[in-house]
Amino acid sequence: MATPPPVKKKPPSEDKDEPGLVPSELDDLTHAEMLMLYGEVSRAILFAKSIQWRTVASTLLVYLALICLARVFPLQLGLIRAMILGVCLIGPVALMMLIVYQMWQYNEIRRRKKIEALLSSFFRDIVGAKPSLESDVHRYLILTAMAGALAVGTAGTVYALAVVLNSQF
């Protein structure tokens, strides 16, 4: 049985479907700096996102603690009203912090795009595999889910505290 002849691959410059490598025009030291900055920016984005989730989780845990405190211990009328007021203040502040962290991520993403433009064409092709619009939609859907969790938590906590208030007085 004869083996088929080896298939010759065209160099990337001759293949019309796949563009060739366009290397970075940066010198080695600047290229290393850009890669280091790219890593730092990527870590900052992940850090900001983790702080967003921690903000949501800690706010909801505070709400749960307030509900438990109000149900377990007989509290004075003024203290329960103060708790309700506190919940009504904590929710919007937590939402504001989510938005601040989202803006921080947006600024870091802009910095990362500037760095990407300085690197090789293969790097840009790999990074650009997911469309920017799709990434933006995903980011804002997650932010909306976080804001929704805070809104439901705030409303639920106010309701639970109002039930305790009405049952005790």
Structure description:
This protein is 78% helix and 0% strand. It has 169 residues and is mainly alpha-helical. α1 runs antiparallel to α2.
Keywords:
169 residues, 4 helices, mainly alpha
Provide a short characterization of the protein structure.
The chain has 169 residues and is mainly α.
Question: DSSP helix count?
Answer: 4
Beta strands, count: 0
Oligomer: single chain
Give the biggest sheet. none
Provide the fold topology:
Layout: H1 28-72, H2 77-118, H3 121-127, H4 132-168
Helix pairs in contact: 1-2, 1-4, 2-4
